[in-house]
Every structure is written in structure tokens, then in C-alpha cells.
Write a structure and sequence with these properties.
Helix content: over 70%
Strand content: under 5%
Number of strands: 0
Oligomer: single chain
Number of helices: 8
Order of helices and strands: HHHHHHHH
Largest sheet: none
């Protein structure tokens, strides 16, 4: 209950773009999620419970990373996204929409940091995952479309800014089709 209230308060600050107040709240939520996963493992909970709680932990890390981006702390944001991806790696073959979103968000940070090759590699991975999930009935279509549009748009901007205007324009055209 405390964690839910804490997370709600952090989310409220985030929505107001009050990232400085949201960061310590999300950081606490990350710590609590990490402890919850450790407790589940210690009591030999089911893999389903551990996976579910780990995904919550990853979501908290992603929110914390988003707040770091909002305060221009890109290295901290990159570290949080990387940790989230590593946690998903620990779950085995984890090809979820959540992973594609983390890869796309980390690629955005790498673009800001001038790490264009790393960013492009992550955009490609995210797009591959997204194409694999396109017709998956278990995937929420609105979430899928949102992550896909963001990824396409951001990857297109990277391509255009690195002199590959035609490739970028093709991705933008693909994005526009999704919006239609």
C-alpha cells in the first residue's frame, strides 16, 4: 500500500513535469520493488510472481530514467534503462513490448549523448521486437501503436540528422500510415 501511494505521488509530480520532486519518490519505489523481488525469491515464490514483480521494478526504473531525462541527467537515465533491460534479460527470452520500449528510450538517450551507432542498433532491435508483436493478441494495441510511433519517429529523426534523409522519410511515411 505504501509503495502504491509513493508511486502515485511520484507519477503526479512526473505528470506536472516536476521531475526534481519525482526523482526521489521513484528512486524509493525502485528500492521497494527491488526488495519485493528479493523477498519473493527468498520465499521461493512462483516464477510468474517473480516475473510480474520484476516487470513492476523495471517500470519503476523506466519512470526514474524518464525523470532523469527531464532534468538533463542523461548518463543516469541511460544507466536506469540499461538496468531495466538487464533485469528483463534475467527473465529469459523476454521479447515484450516493455523491452522494445526500453530499447527505444535508451536509444533516445544515446542520440542525445551523440552515441549514434549505439542508438541505431537499439532502434533496430526495438523495431524488430515491435514487428514480431504486431499481430500478437496478448499485446495491448494502443500501447503497441504508441511505442511503435515513438520508435519510428525517433529513429527517423536520427537517420535524418545523420544525413540519411531518404531512409528517415521512409520511416516517417510508415509512421503516418499507422496514424491514419
Amino acid at each position: 500500500r505504501y509503495r502504491t501511494t509513493l508511486r502515485d505521488l511520484a507519477e503526479l509530480n512526473y505528470q506536472r513535469a516536476d521531475f526534481r520532486d519525482a526523482v526521489p519518490l521513484f528512486a524509493q519505489s525502485v528500492t521497494l520493488a527491488q526488495r519485493a523481488v528479493a523477498k519473493l525469491k527468498a520465499k521461493h515464490a512462483s516464477q510468474v510472481e517473480i516475473v510480474e514483480e520484476t516487470r513492476v521494478w523495471v517500470a519503476d526504473l523506466a519512470d526514474l530514467a524518464d525523470c532523469h531525462r527531464g532534468t538533463s541527467k542523461y548518463q543516469a537515465a541511460a544507466a536506469d534503462y540499461q538496468k531495466g533491460i538487464k533485469l528483463l534479460d534475467g527473465l529469459g527470452k523476454e521479447d515484450t513490448l516493455q523491452r522494445a520500449e526500453l530499447e527505444s528510450e535508451l536509444a533516445d538517450v544515446y542520440t542525445v549523448l551523440g552515441r549514434y551507432d549505439d542508438a541505431e542498433s537499439l532502434y533496430k532491435k526495438a523495431m524488430t521486437r515491435l514487428s514480431e508483436k504486431k499481430n500478437d493478441p496478448k499485446v495491448d494495441k494502443k500501447s503497441y501503436q504508441s511505442v511503435s510511433i515513438d520508435t519510428l519517429q525517433d529513429y527517423a529523426m536520427l537517420l535524418r540528422s545523420t544525413g540519411r534523409v531518404k531512409e528517415g522519410d521512409q520511416l516517417l511515411a510508415e509512421m503516418r500510415k499507422m496514424l491514419a
